[in-house]
Amino acid sequence: YPYFSDEMHCSICELMSPLLSGTGTEHRFRVFLPPGYRENTLRRYPVLYMHDGNNLFLKEEAFLGNTWRTDEVLNVLDRMNAINNVIVVGILPNDRMAEYTSPGYHDYGRFLVERLKPLIDAKYRTLVGPADTAVMGSSLGGVVSFYLGWQRPDVFGKVACLSSTFGYRDDLIERVATES
Question: In whole angstroms, what is the distance from residue 145 CA to residue 125 CA?
Fold first, then answer.
């Protein structure tokens, strides 16, 4: 098995210090490290950036106390050998209605590409190419994920959009359809 002991610490408990975007807006985030991360110090991991980070792990932060149980799901899928281990970065929104829609997702996207990803790649053992960098979200988080994958395929090679609200304040689908 790729690791021998269960992690004795919580890799998601620490809310990382706010990181400033190019516009001066602060973003907080949490990092989930896969089992075995601290044991095998030579291994590098793909990274999944997830929007609405407040809904991913902890009930006290999640909307109506319902989380995606991201850490539990990834651990079960790992035990089943159904996925490769992945580092998850959960980004907490400041104003999801503005950041995840046009024109706000332009600045939010620059923040992810120019500020957050370089920080994560420097601090953790990541695989840095687009084939190993994914972005995921639901509802408006799916919209910004789609936007990032469409505009920055050089960074985000994998995109997951769940129950995305593409028609809200945006013509993203029409722009994609008409792009030559």
Answer: 23
Q: Is 142 within 8 Å of 161 (Cβ atoms)?
A: yes
Confidence (pLDDT) at 1: 46
Give the separation between CA 58 and CA 67, rounded to whole angstroms: 6
| Cβ contacts of 6 within 8 Å, gap of 6 or more | 35
Whether this prediction's pTM lies above 0.85 is answered by yes
Burial of 80 (0-12, 13-18, 19+ CB in 10 A): exposed
What three-state secondary structure class fits 29? strand
Confidence of residue 9 (pLDDT cuts 50, 70, 90): very low
Q: CA 94 to CA 53: how far, in whole Å? A: 11
SS3 119: helix
